[in-house]
Amino acid sequence: MAGRRKAEIQLQMHIESQEEWEDLLSKEGLNVVDVYQEWCGPCSGMVANLRRLKNELGDDLLRFATAKADMIDSLDKYRGHCEPCFLFYAGGCLVAVVRGANSPKILRTITEQLKQEHKCLDGGSERKEIKDPFIAQLESKEKETEKEEEEEEEGRPPSKGVQSQGITVTLHLKVKIESKFLH
Questions:
Q1: Virtual CA dihedral for 50, 51, 54, 60, nearest 10 degrees?
Q2: Dihedral angle, C-alpha 47, 53, 58, 59, nearest 10 °
Q3: Where's the Thioredoxin domain (predicted)?
Q4: DSSP conformation letters of 92-153
Q5: Would 15 disulfide with which of 2, 20, 34, 127, CB 3.0-4.6 Å?
Q6: Is the Cβ–Cβ distance between 24 and 92 less than 8 Å?
């Protein structure tokens, strides 16, 4: 009986090196990548939905992959976070990100981005590259921490920024305290 089973086609490529990552990004079409860490593994709950969508669409420009962030230098910012993260790449550009195993949102994003990629390849549209908002926020916090550490090393008190409506105001406070002792 086992000999009669059809060989199951692999739905997701498994990316575990920087070289494989770069090869994936060089491929034409939409690459949907489930970024994970070795200790928690890829999001297995989405596989059935991805398989169903792939079969429904039957589009060769749509590829799915899992990428082990622990082994890929380009994904180092994704290490240490356990929430499922799906990155959407087209033409080597990040075009969308979905965090969490939100099946309806992931499937809708795949459909929208695949349609957009067809327009781009047909010359009717341009890709809109994005920066992952989570990573951008993480990098901003890292820069702020570095700046505060530099200020402390220089003997200046750390500056504190106040943000309102997208405008950041940075105040540098220098406090001089004098104490007089009466004898």
A1: 110
A2: -90
A3: 15-110
A4: TEEEEEEES--HHHHHHHHHHHHHHHHHHHTTS--------HHHHHHHHHHHHHHHHHHHHH
A5: 20
A6: no
Query: Which 3 state secondary structure label does DSSP give 19?
Result: helix
Buried-state track 114-135, b at ≥16 Cβ within 10 A, e below 16: bebbeebeeeeeebeeeebeeb
Strand, helix or coil for residue 29: coil
pLDDT tens-digit profile of 63-91? 999 999 999 999 999 998 778 999 999 99
pLDDT, residue 163, reads 52
d(CA 95, CA 151): 37
Residue ranges and CATH numbers for the domains of the chain are: 8-130 (3.40.30.10), 134-171 (no CATH)
CB atoms within 10 A of CB 69: 20
| d(C-alpha 61, C-alpha 42), whole Å | 22
Q: How far apart are alpha carbons 164 and 145 in whole angstroms?
A: 20
